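Notes, p. 3: input format for complexes.
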Amino acid sequence: MIVLGIESSCDETAAAVVTDQRAVLSNEVLSQLDAHRPYGGVVPEIAARAHLDAIDRITARAMEKANIGFSDLDAVAATGGPGLIGGVLVGVMTAKAIAAVHNLPFIGVNHLEGHALTVRLTGDRDNKEISFPYLLLLVSGGHCQLLIVKAAGSYKRLGTTIDDALGEAFDKSAKMLGLGYPGGPALEQWARHGDPVRFDLPRPLKGRAGCDFSFSGLKTKVRQTIEQLPEGPISDRDKSDICAAFQNAAGDVLIDRCNNAIDRFLSDHPEGTHLVVSGGVAANQSIRSRLAALCKARDLSFAAPPVHLCTDNAAMIAWAGLERLQKGDVDDLSFRPRPRWPLDPDAPAALGGGVKA
Ligand code: KG4
Ligand code: ZN
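Output follows (357 residues plus KG4):
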């Protein structure tokens, strides 16, 4: 089986082709970073127009690199939400048009399911397939959740953020420190040579029961810490030390919450073997190694997609589409994009405003 996937829900225009043999035949990603950099964040209107300008070219390139024609495809998948609606519409309409012209099934994929299932495409360290159920920490710019992945399309949410997503907290803290955009990767670089204990930052919800997250207090304390520095430009030393303190505090929170989630996962699924991390923040090496150490202590295996498949891409959308296709779960051309689309529809609504799922 061969599936073309299209991703356009945020600031990457991406197209990829994958097979049921877990091969990525092509994976094209065009970042819009330069278009959004002057604004310090993603501007939805600019993103939608940029997707429209690029999507035909990126899709054609993905097909060319895969060295196949549209008649070789078994389905076309596109991110159908959650995300910025203008961009999602561009990807969905492009995929529907290809599906209609070439008489192929269309699949509207949940972007979060793309992140959730990427490790089933990329496998474990020995390239062995990771089987259900597994525990998933999904950490991106818009989401921070702990989920049990029971099967494609079947998720139990154990916890979510009650305010900011972790990627958002990385980005906003980086912005306050003037580290440029995007903030997450920059903050990680600055943290590398910093002293993590010079500044005392909070660990919200650490030690409390449950698996929810909160990061707005951490972000606020970063702002207060910056305000208390001597007047003038922030020194490189201070920047590095604040970044290291932030990353350390965020890591402590993740470990604490994952520990509670592991208890619940193993009590519901004693046969479970893996903790998986995915989403843009999973590209962070410090967080990856701390989670790997936690897994070792809890006698679980740790898995994460390679860094370039942690941030948004279309290979994960093609793969999630392929898993849906294998189950016969396809959409038709009446599919409507969903700006909000929780993976676990039975989970109670998150407390915080602005939380998408
Ligand atoms: O999954 P993603 O590409 O887009 C969403 O679906 O949100 O995640 C983007 C987020 C951004 O907040 C970005 O700053 C963060 O992932 N990110 C990182 C790193 N690389 C990307 N955060 C921390 N460390 C990184 N190395
Ligand atoms: Zn994403």
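Residues 10, 140-142, 167, 170-171, 182-185, 188, 279-281, 283-284, 311-312 surround KG4 (ligand 1) (CB under 6 Å).
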